[in-house]
Amino acid sequence: MSDRYELVTRDGCHLCDEMAKVLDTVLPRFGLAYAPVDVDADPALRARFGEIVPVLLRDGAPVAKVRLGERELERIVQRRR
């Protein structure tokens, strides 16, 4: 089973940039990738998350919000393996 990771983000969000760097560093170690999703381009996401970004989704469910360190992300990924 392959997990699908998405990063709910918005332009100009420095926290989103920080989380993207963590994802870029950690996910490839597990053979995984993520897709960025613009919260402001999707009314359903905007209604769901409002101003709370970034949000990391795995298979559509939130697994991390706002800040995420490398070790925390590793634990998130390993719990599914």
Structure keywords:
36% helix; 3 helices; 23% strand; Glutaredoxin; globular; alpha+beta; 81 residues
Would you kindly provide a written description of the structure presented here, covering whatever features stand out?
The chain has three helices and four strands. By secondary structure, the protein is of the alpha+beta class. It has one domain: 3-Layer(aba) Sandwich (Glutaredoxin). Helix 1 links the parallel strand 1 and strand 2. The radius of gyration is 12 Å and the shape is globular.
CATH class: Alpha Beta
How helix-rich are the residues, as a percent range?
Answer: 25-40%
Q: Give the helices and strands as they follow along the chain.
A: EHEHEEH
- Structural class assignment: alpha+beta
CATH superfamily: Glutaredoxin
* Terminal Cα span: 9 Å
> Could you describe the largest sheet, including whether it forms a barrel?
4 strands, mixed
User: Tally the helices: what do you get?
Assistant: 3
Strand content: 15-25%
Spatially, the strands of the biggest sheet line up as 2-1-3-4
CATH topology: the name is Glutaredoxin
CATH-scheme architecture? 3-Layer(aba) Sandwich
Summarize the helices and strands and which ones pair or pack.
Blueprint: E1 5-9, H1 14-26, E2 34-38, H2 43-49, E3 55-58, E4 61-65, H3 70-78
Parallel strand pairs: 1-2
Antiparallel strand pairs: 1-3, 3-4
In a nutshell, what does this entry contain?
The protein has 81 residues and is of the alpha+beta class. 36% of the residues lie in helices and 23% in strands.
